Amino acid sequence: MSKSELNKIPSGEAVGIVAAQSVGEPGTQMTMRTFHYAGVAEQVPTGLPRLIELVDARKEPKKPLMDIHLAGAASQDEKKAQAIANEIESITLGRIADVEEDFLNKRINVDVDPDEMAHLSVELDAVRKKVKAAAGGEVETEGNVLHVKPKVNSLRMLRRLTNRLKGMPIRGVERIRRCVVIKGKNGYFIRTAGSNLSGIAKVEGVDASRLYTNDVKEVEKVLGIEAARNSMVREIKQVLDMQGLNVDARHIMLLADAMTMNGKIKSVGRHGLSGEKAGVLARAAFEETVKHLVNASIQAEEDHLIGVTENIIVGQTVPLGTGLVRLKMKI
Questions:
Q1: pTM for the whole structure
Q2: Long-range contacts: 120-125, Cβ < 8 Å, 24+?
Q3: Which residue, 81, 86, 168, 172, is the most exposed by fewest CB within 10 angstroms?
């Protein structure tokens, strides 16, 4: 027999319970510390906080990161890599100008810093066009100050528009707050604070086939559920490896498969996998007991006792291992 044949899991093995134990037990021994990622001056959650973030299928991670690998000569030339990084980094209006509302005249004053504009090679005319497009209405230029008179009828709307203008990108890829060029094993790559897969894939000089983000939900949205599943496996494995915990990849793969089996990422918990179990008693045994029992009563649901929990509740043999064998005797 081949090794792969010998390593096949026998029928009736409690793979889910073994996987839950294998990931859960080391998970309790993780430290709560955060970790500084090389180059990006941000505290990125690792260990238990990051693991919870992943299995809860949060909309976006607390600190999204991207690794951008470069195509062609830029991957071996630091200056070219830095030029691409400068092109990617998002420059917001609030970074190059003071944006304040003038309630008396119902307008917004944008006081642009000429030194900051020169340093970031941004032109006043380009800023004016972007502001006009975002705010609507009229824009008057007075030296380095833009007076924006938008078509809003209340002071609250004026304040809301001011806040929107402060975060408006003037240049670069949206949601990418900071870029750092790092020397890797195979040349230079860019690490970013913030994530935008579809935006970065369009940038010239970037190797779109090797883009990576730690935002699993964004991977699902842009590249599909299979890519998201692979990303989930990689992220959980990375968390465990960083803590020096040796967990077989197959347990993590089973967890990722369970979370993505319906074509979209679902959390492990009462709003996801546990709340959608097939059996009524299994759902009721986890959380929100009364809600599940009442709903099942209203809809006249039947429980076929196919799982472990239900059989323990009713005092039957669990359908696992030898309990899976059913014999009929013909007399």
A1: 0.81
A2: 120/91, 120/96, 120/171, 122/91, 122/96, 122/170, 122/171
A3: 86
